[in-house]
Amino acid sequence: MTYTFPTPTLAAPHEDATPLYLIAPEDLATFLAGLPPAQGAFAGATGFAAGAGEVLILPEVDGSIAGVLIGRGSAEARRRGRFVMAGAAARLPAGDYRLVPLLTHDEAEEFALGWLFESYRFDRYKAQNTPKARLVAPEGVDAGRLNAIAAGEYLTRDLVNTPAADMGPAQLANVAVALADLHGGTSGVTVGDALLDANFPMIHAVGRAAAADRAPRLIEMNFGTTGPRLTLVGKGVCFDTGGLDIKPAAGMGLMKKDMGGAATVLGLAHMILQLNLPLQLRVLVPAVENSIAGGAMRPGDVLTARNGLTVEVNNTDAEGRLVLADALALASEDAPDLLISMATLTGAARVALGPDVPPFYTDDDSIAATLAAASTAARDPIWRMPFHPAYEALIEPGIADLDNAPGGGMAGSITAALFLRRFAAAPYVHFDIYAWQQAAAPARPKGGVGQGARALLAALPQLLGEAQ
């Protein structure tokens, strides 16, 4: 099946669009007093209280829509939540709607982006009630940028949501190649035993037990020839049984999302390329299925990575760091100005920070500060965790250079990040993401979701400007 890249779009401004009024509870009485008496009485009779995301359609005397009130909610509700008004997009009839300027620029941008995110539906297998209401681009907002961000997010969500039977290593590679073609880049895919010839032994070891049509592969994409060099590496484990250290059924149920790191870097690349950022972009995705068969890697095996380090496999379910290690080693040979990896790597990260806030790791305090500020501006929460040097000993077993799964059950996200750092050139940033929305929330339907990409996009001009 050929993948069609989504094109979410804010409507062009026009006066026939229905007005939207975003009202805070403390402003409601004054606003209603300024309406025609019949409309004010109608609003009062409905009990509309301007709660976060609450919607009220105001009628004209002929029954047509005069306007729409959307509750902003209290300041505390807005502080606690993101995109709290976005749910309105799914509750309005088809048509174009324009925002009457009652917001700051940042609030209008958040509202517009939330509207686009709320309008996403995954309908490959079942028709969905896709919102038909369109938002006119608010005055002063960069509609092209918001459209690009939404298109990248839609791509990430589509890839994560697709079941593994239809999004294996080959299908993921096909989407990546199509993305490269769409943006005039180059691409290449190294498959199966050719990985050994090309010196990607750990990617091969993790994926070699899969069926022939789901053979492991390394996907590479390149764009641009001038500007600072950015390399993105995304974990592409298209399904993870756990290998011989097999997961229980409850742990395997969401493993179609174990390629969420790859999905996120492809979505981020799509954003960057639509916006024509002045940089050289390289994307690397080790795409595998961690399966069980006679040729599967075994607990206790020692693998030799691309950069020569040996790794004792003490748990075949800690496979993501193995495939990332070879890709990071390749990326580091080219000494990029900034190297970023994104992966659904550890449950420990979820224990530490929950599903909504992925940790990131870097040795560079300036990079960390820039990302933290960008995270707030982009409404894309992330949180720095440390490359804690005292834990280095935990990833050093007795018979090899590194241990892929140190025992003890503590600091699992940190030890995984320390493992990856052994293969990465500086400056390096690693994100341990979840890539999944457990329950529907404003602008985030249940299912696959991008994490960290918008924060990175907002930070890149400063991060790469300093690299020049």
TrEMBL record:
Keywords: Aminopeptidase, Hydrolase, Manganese, Protease. Pfam families: Peptidase_M17, Peptidase_M17_N_1. The keyword Ion transport does not apply. Transmembrane segments: none annotated. InterPro entries: Leucine_aapep/pepB (IPR011356), Macro_dom-like (IPR043472), Peptidase_M17_C (IPR000819), Peptidase_M17_N_1 (IPR048816). GO terms for cellular component: cytoplasm. Residues 315-322 form the Cytosol aminopeptidase domain. Its EC number is 3.4.11.1. One of its GO terms (biological process) is proteolysis. One of its GO terms (molecular function) is manganese ion binding. Belongs to the peptidase M17 family. This is Cytosol aminopeptidase family protein.
